[in-house]
Automatic annotation (TrEMBL):
Documented EC number(s): 2.6.1.9
Record GO biological process: L-histidine biosynthetic process
Gene Ontology molecular functions: histidinol-phosphate transaminase activity; pyridoxal phosphate binding
Pathway where it operates: Amino-acid biosynthesis; L-histidine biosynthesis; L-histidine from 5-phospho-alpha-D-ribose 1-diphosphate: step 7/9
Catalytic activity: L-histidinol phosphate + 2-oxoglutarate = 3-(imidazol-4-yl)-2-oxopropyl phosphate + L-glutamate
Protein name per UniProt: Histidinol-phosphate aminotransferase
Complexes and interactors: Homodimer.
Cofactor annotation: pyridoxal 5'-phosphate
Keywords recorded for this protein, A-Z: Amino-acid biosynthesis, Aminotransferase, Coiled coil, Histidine biosynthesis, Pyridoxal phosphate, Transferase
Organism (species): Fodinibius halophilus
Domain Aminotransferase class I/classII large intervals: 45-348
EC main group: transferase
Any coiled-coil regions, as ranges: 262-289
Length: 352
């Protein structure tokens, strides 16, 4: 995809013509604020963060920090209620319900399909290569129709755990005639570089990240999208005016300010990922453990469904993925603390 890619031609006509809601806090943030019908007496408890005032609709401070953290421009960042909101907005901006199509590469994250179904968008699936779990570039490009608007890639991929080869992602971004989403929810557990800085080069690239995994903040619901400014502008227009609440924005900033601790956690999880792999490898009923650049392992194990149920009886919950293509008899196991992993291994030995 070269720089002549014209984003307008991909945007739904109703969105092109949309006049966005104009929120009061877009104009003024300080002064005698009698413009937004907020409660002048405040919240019903002691509150230092001015919760009776609406939050910043364009999240300037948080987005500036994110931009500095990832080495991109603030204008290339969007923050939403989890990655879910970013995915939902892309459908609403680019896909005409009942007419357009998207492309996914299973086995992969289930939310792309759920969101497509919600928006009445048809899905074409091109399975990953069975041996390598890499995307099959030619087969993907052969499946494109004039109605195909978005290609979803997840790297490192959930549930397989592998990173897609940079060369394959690059070919797809260059040749796919639509939006290419690279979901990097697990990028901080990988040694591969993020694609976030490439949004300046590729006008059709959208990179998704989240504070739910490496930052350990799944509870605050904060997802980040990176894209060229025109796409970001559309996302800002279509989102709910005050999508990110003040406590979330404040905790997200606190998370970034504690990045050294995050790095420490990432290193510990990567180390533990290796330990867990070694211990699982010793078990007779474990057939294969796939390479992982994420904070989980995909494990092929005899009688996966029974083992899943037996573990659950012992209050140890993993994810059964045996119904996914190429994932016969597989469990997806999140890397826990050393104690948690020890409990898991002990239980697996008992069950076998
Ligand atoms: C966990 C995960 C996310 C995170 O979603 P949030 O809505 O940000 O919590 C996104 N993509 C993938 C592939 C994931 O596994």
């Amino acid at each position: 995809m070269n720089s002549s890619f014209n984003i307008e031609s991909f945007v739904r006509p109703n969105i092109q013509q949309l006049t966005p809601y104009h929120s009061a806090r877009e104009d003024f943030e300080e002064g005698l604020l009698l413009d937004a019908n907020e409660n002048s007496l405040g919240a019903p408890f002691t509150d230092e963060s001015d919760l009776h005032r609406y939050p910043d609709p364009s999240q300037k401070k948080l987005r500036q920090l994110i931009a500095e953290w990832r080495g991109v421009r603030k204008e290339n960042t969007f923050v939403g209620v989890g990655s879910d909101e970013g995915i939902d907005l892309l459908f609403r901006i680019f896909c005409r319900p009942g007419k357009d199509r998207v492309l996914t590469v299973p086995p992969t994250y289930g939310m792309y399909t759920v969101s497509a179904n919600i928006h009445d968008i048809a899905i074409d699936e091109v399975l990953l290569d069975e041996e390598t779990f890499q995307p099959r570039v030619e087969a993907i490009l052969d499946t494109v129709t004039p109605e195909t608007k978005i290609l979803f890639l997840c790297s490192p991929n959930n549930p397989t755990g592998n990173t897609f080869e940079a060369d394959k992602i690059e070919q797809l971004v260059k040749k796919f005639p639509g939006i290419v989403v690279v979901d990097e929810a697990y990028i901080d557990f990988s040694d591969q570089e993020s694609w976030a800085s490439h949004v300046a080069t590729y006008p059709n690239l959208v990179v998704l990240q989240t504070m739910s995994k490496s930052l350990g903040l799944a509870g605050i619901r904060l997802g980040i999208s990176y894209a060229q400014e025109e796409i970001i502008n559309y996302m800002m227009k279509v989102k709910a005016p005050y999508n990110i609440n003040k406590p979330t924005a404040e905790l997200a900033i606190e998370g970034l300010e504690n990045w050294r601790t995050v790095e420490f956690h990432i290193e510990a999880i990567k180390k533990e990922r290796k330990q867990l792999r070694n211990k699982l490898e010793e078990l007779n009923h474990v057939e294969h453990i796939y390479p992982s650049d994420a904070n989980f392992l995909l494990v092929k194990i005899d009688n996966a469904r029974t083992i899943y149920q037996q573990l659950a009886k012992r209050d140890i919950i993993v994810r059964y993925r045996g119904n996914e293509p190429h994932c016969d008899s597989c469990l997806r196991i999140t890397v826990g603390t050393p104690d948690e992993n020890e409990r898991l291994i002990t239980a697996l030995k008992e069950i076998a």
